[in-house]
Amino acid sequence: MARKKIREYDSKRLLKEHLKRLVHIDLPICSAQVTESTDFTELLEKESWLSQRRLVVKPDMLFGKRGKSGLVALNLDFAGAVEFIKKRLGQEIEIEGCKGPITTFIIEPFIPHKEEYYLAISSERLGFNISFSECGGIEIEENWDKVNSIFLPTKSPLTDEAIAPLIADLPSEIGKKIGNFMKGVFAVFQDLDFSFIEMNPFTLVDGEAYPLDMRGELDENAAFKNEDKWGNLEFPLPFGRVLSPEESFILDLNDKTSASLKFTLLNPKGRIWNMIAGGGASLIYTDTVGDLGCATELGNYTEYGGPSEEEMLKLARVILDCATANPDGRKRSILIGGNIANLTDVGATFDGIIRALKEKKSELKEANIHIYVRRGGPNYLTGLAKMQAVGEELGIPVEVYGPEAVMTGICNRAIEGM
Amino acid sequence: MRVGEREEISSFPSCFLLSSLCAEAMATGQLFSRTTQALFYNYKQLPIQRMLDFDFICGRETPSVAGIINPGAEGFQKLFFGQEEIAIPVHSTIEAACAAHPTADVFINFASFRSAAASSMSALKQPTIRVVAIIAEGVPESDTKQLIAYARSNNKVVIGPATVGGIQAGAFKIGDTAGTIDNIVQCKLYRPGSVGFVSKSGGMSNEMYNTIARVTDGIYEGIAIGGDVFPGSTLSDHILRFNNIPQIKMMVVLGELGGRDEYSLVEALKQGKVNKPVVAWVSGTCARLFKSEVQFGHAGAKSGGEMESAQAKNQALKEAGAVVPTSYEAFEDAIKETFEKLVEEGKITPVKEVKPPQIPEDLNSAIKSGKVRAPTHIISTISDDRGEEPCYAGVPMSSIVEQGFGVGDVISLLWFKRSLPRYCTKFIEICIMLCADHGPCVSGAHNTIVTARAGKDLVSSLVSGLLTIGPRFGGAIDDAARYFKDAYDRGLTPYEFVESMKKKGIRVPGIGHRIKRGDNRDKRVELLQLFARTNFPSVKYMEYAVQVETYTLSKANNLVLNVDGAIGSLFLDLLAGSGMFTKQEIDEIIEIGYLNGLFVLARSIGLIGHTFDQKRLKQPLYRHPWEDVLYTK
After folding, report:
1. Residue B32 CA to chain centroid, in angstroms?
2. Given this model, what pLDDT does residue B300 score?
3. Quick one: DSSP state of residue B470?
4. Which of A5, A363, B235, B620 is deepest in the core (most CB within 10 A)?
5. What is the mean pLDDT of residues B517-542?
6. Are A323 and A299 in contact (CB under 8 A)?
7. Which of the residue ranges A213-222, B21-30, B242-251 would you say has the lowest mean pLDDT?
8. Average confidence (pLDDT) over A402-410
9. Where does residue A158 rank: exposed (0-12), middle (13-18), buried (19+ CB within 10 A)?
């Protein structure tokens, strides 16, 4: 639950729909989304403009620099657009070190234009940053000195006076149009709980603002207030993040519960595996393994908070399966760690883990697993005793530490003799 | 045309400068003391009890919770203050609570993420409230921003959202901060030390209280600002506040990757606004291990631009003059060295150690840990609702549905504690159907109708009908079973049985009908007998009843075996013939009156029907006509 980027298609869909509702601006933009499951004949029936206008096609995958990467096709007819997409759909590309397949495209009318304006709104702790430039487009970074910004405190309305410094250099007629457009976009931004909007560029078509490229980010925490306004909205994973089946399973589990369950697979062949309670502590354990020079041996990032015994069992199963998947005779370690809990009943949380350990007895032995436990908090003595006992029962080396030990001390123990 | 594309525009330096400057608008210095009292929104027994336990071991004279706000409820909540029980007033609105407790200036909000913002805003608007702590995780950013803006312009402090709270050692504790009493004692939080601590993570704050207690004289105050992108108050807000508290001699900060909050602390350090040592560590150096953008445990902990990385923040803090260790593992030593230097410089006043009083252990936790035992007051053997789903006699409710069980099977589980064969449970169901109603004129239905017409509710109408069931109404099945069983088991001939009853002046139960005759048998009886003959392994009691009927019919044509007699005798066959009951069990079942239970259950269906019928027909109060009463002396 946090800020989530949305696709350009959705950003534009929300902008168009709610500009109309909130400030009666009717944006003449059209866009169509294409994925693997798109039936082009059906699409053409639904969006007749596709066959009537020249088109622009680009991937809609939350990554930038599409123009510079040669992934934008201009001035095509529909057949050309389809051909461009079919050639690239599912193809793996690399953008700034992240590899992944292209799965989603956006098609829009090709708009020949001269002006390229830049507009960005971002939500800050005490208000909003609104930036505008007459020199938007592909070279925005080079032209950053031409970007004007204002800071609008939380409760202040976006008045003409507030906007004035942004559009001072524009001819008054155009300035007025663009100022109105900004006010509209800002109204949508606030009403729909956006945390970031950027249009780079937008232009003028028949004297009216027309966004060509758009990025948006919503506050997912506000989903409960926006169910109707957001409509059927997808929060795609960052580009290059392809979920393994295990990761999808845990993500699914996480979405269905009030508990927090996070699992990221880093290196399937890694020899150090994490099962850490708490958002803060999980980060620090992961840091520590890296600080000790064993980053490459780290199998996963995991964080859990407030799981039921059943949920804990499922998470632990996944981690144990991964940790024991590639036995090679060498020592492998599982860190069952966490800070001194405020409320969590440590004994009860460990019950789920213990059930998973018992299920995987032979796999654990075969993979030469060593288990290191460190936890404090309610009922921790019971929890540690149970862990010790299950180690003895299964014949697996288990070391347990309580609050008297340094939290990350077990990282050192895990690495020793590896 | 050109299609503009670029990566996220990084920070605007103006913005974090602004936030550090404005930080001065927040309350400076002390927020809490040993007399601070809070209002607690949304009643939660455990966190409040933990606060009161903390108060007790700190030797506070007044409990730190003055009142509870539980929307829609009023009255008192009983809680312990040490050994004693106290009653804390419960109010239904924030306004009422503030009016009743004008000296309570902290508002602890345990509302859900959906409603936390609205209740926090109304609390901030109360003149008596200075500090609002919001526990919920998942409050929308735009709502938090409204709270921040209001708090800043009204000189109030918001702690959270998404936090466990904070603590002033020996004085005041928010909610669940610092966990169990054992941990609080371990971390010496019952008396003030010299260290001010602030972190994002609530869990890690608890860990750090421990660490700090190990290598210094302990915490003076600790605050977890919460893991959100926009916390109500920031790391630097609290560091600047700590800087103004004379008892605090050094500060410890645990930051996290993501966001730019640490930079306002950097600015404050650079501007010389902090003149006490600050030991700081920003966690999340591991983010570079992840190829694509990662959302870690906290909403604010997101790998993003270089400036928001842990490495960059640690570097900036170090350059601004904070003590920054090389890793989290070295954090403890850095705190230790900084503290020892202060001791050497004579800046630390030695803490007077006190022995905190013992909190009487709760009965429940003592039982859980095996220290004491307590007798139970109730025993139950038929059902259990403690597991994943309720079980009837060990059978989970889901498998009852999945296996297509009927009401008869449920009765078999709950009444007889075993799964009887389907022919038995089907027979039970037939009995229930046959006994469900017998028209409006019988005493049960009559009572129910009169009660329903008096405007009483469903339960009153139902029970007034049920209350008529007894020796004269509906009791015949049980009696029939008892007498038939006794006679058959003793080997009495029908003649001996009927005549011995006659001698005792008892009518043979289960024999006789108002309308039915020997040549016009009761169809229901015939159906029951047919079912039993087809399905039961043995029908010896029923055959005996038929022999009795043959004898009684020879005396009078209306002395037929009626439905009560048929059910009573066939139930004996069910119990004896199924082979699933011992003789003692059968005797007990008949003795306790299970068959009466069958009648009560069945007839409830009819009585409920009569109640609904009268209500649907809007029948007025029933009054018995004078004409129908014989008035006499």
Report:
1. 32
2. 60
3. B
4. B235
5. 93
6. yes
7. B21-30
8. 94
9. buried
Check: CB of residue B167 under 8 Å from CB of residue B219: yes
Q: How far apart are CA A127 and CA B466, in angstroms?
A: 69
Neighbouring-strand partners of residue B67: B39
Q: Are B63 and B191 in contact (CB under 8 A)?
A: no
- Name residue, tokens 């070391």: A399
β-bridge pairing B383-384 and A105-109: unpaired
Determine phi and psi for B109, rounding to 5 degrees: -105, 110
Tell me what percent of the residues of chain B surpass a pLDDT of 70: 94
> Which residue from B5, B176, B203 is facing A64, i.e. has the nearest CB?
B5
Is the CA virtual torsion B610, B613, B614, B619 positive or negative?
A: negative
Query: Would the ipTM clear 0.85, i.e. be above it?
Result: yes
**Does the pLDDT at position A256 exceed 80?**
yes
Q: How far is A114 from chain B (nearest CA, A)?
A: 8
* B91, B115 Cβ separation under 8 angstroms: no
Of A358, A257, A361, nearest in space to A304 by CA:
A257
Q: Is the pLDDT of residue B24 over 90?
A: no
Which residues on chain B are in Cβ contact (under 8 Å) with A382? 369
- Distance, CA of B374 to CA of A275 (rounded, Å): 37
Distance CA B622, CA B461 (A): 13
Kindly report the average pLDDT of chain B as a whole number.
91
For B96-138, the three-class secondary structure string (H helix, E strand, C coil) is HHHHHCCCCCEEEECCCCCCHHHHHHHHHCCCCCCEEEECCCC
Cα–Cα distance list, B57 to A167, A328, A380, B359 (Å): 63, 54, 22, 7
- Closest to B215 in 3D by CA, of B323, B322, B332, B350: B332
Nearest by CB to A340, which of B7, B210, B254? B210
Residues 6+ apart with CB under 8 A from B379: none
* Residue B34 Cα distances to A51, A361, B51, B168, B181, angstroms: 75, 53, 13, 9, 18
State both tokens at A187.
């109204």
Please list the active-site residues of B.
298
Residue B464 and residue B447 in contact, taking contact as beta carbons nearer than 8 Å:
yes
Chain A hits for B142, CB-CB cut-off 8 Å, are: 123, 190, 193, 219, 222
Give Dmax (Cα) for chain A: 82
Contacts of B499 (CB under 8 A, 6+ apart): none
The pLDDT value given to residue A68: 77
Partners of B133 in beta bridges:
B108, B159
Q: What is the pLDDT of residue B295?
A: 62
CB neighbour list of residue A83: distance below 8 Å, 6 or more residues apart: none
Pull the structure tokens for residue B633: 């002396």
Nearest to A299 by CA among A284, A312, A289, A314: A289
% of chain B with per-residue pLDDT over 90: 82
Residues of chain A with C-beta less than 8 angstroms from the C-beta of B297: 260, 262, 278-280, 282-283, 303, 305
Residue B345's CB is within 10 A of a number of other CB atoms, namely 9
Task: Write B368-372 long-range contacts (CB < 8 A, 24+).
Answer: B368/A379, B369/A382
Distance, CA of A149 to CA of A129 (rounded, Å): 7
- B9-17: which pairs have CB atoms within 8 A and are 24 or more residues apart? B9/A120, B9/A131, B9/A198, B10/B305, B10/B306, B10/B307, B11/B260, B11/B305, B11/B307, B12/A129, B12/A149, B12/A151, B14/A149, B14/A151, B15/A124, B15/A126, B15/A129, B15/A151, B15/B260, B16/B260, B16/B263, B16/B264, B16/B267, B17/B267
What is the DSSP code string of B473-518?
A: TB-HHHHHHHHHHHHHHTT--HHHHHHHHHHHT---TTB--SS-BT
* pLDDT for res B436: 95
Given a contact cutoff of 8 angstroms between Cβ atoms, the answer to whether A196 and A123 are in contact is yes
pLDDT at B23 over 60: no
Beta carbons of A278 and B145 less than 8 Å apart: no
Distances (CA, A) of B182 to A9, B50, B367: 55, 11, 17
